[in-house]
Amino acid sequence: MLNLKSNVVSRFAAEADAMRVSRDLLDQELERIDKLPKLGLLWVEYSAYCLGVNIAPRKRSSEYCRLTRIAVLIVNLSIIYSLVAFIKENYMISFEAYVEAVLLTFQLSVGVVKMFHFQSKVESCSQLVFSTESGEVLKSLGLFDLEMPRKKELLRSLSLILINNWMIIDKQVMFFFKIVCMPVLYYTMRPYFQYIYDCYIVKDTCEMTLTYPAIVPFVQLGKYEFPSYVIRFFLLQSGPIWCFFAVFGFNSLFVVLTRYESGLIKVLRFLVQNSTSDFLVPQDQRVKYLQCCVKLFARISRHHYQIENLFKYIILVQCSVSSILICMLLYKISTVLEVGWVWMGMIMVYFVTIALEISLYNLSAQKVETQSELLFYDWYNCDWYNESKEFKFMIKLMLLFSRRTLNLSVGGFSNLSHKFLVQVFRLSANFFLLLRNMNNK
Question: In the predicted model, what is the mean pLDDT of residues 379-405?
Answer without folding.
Answer: 88
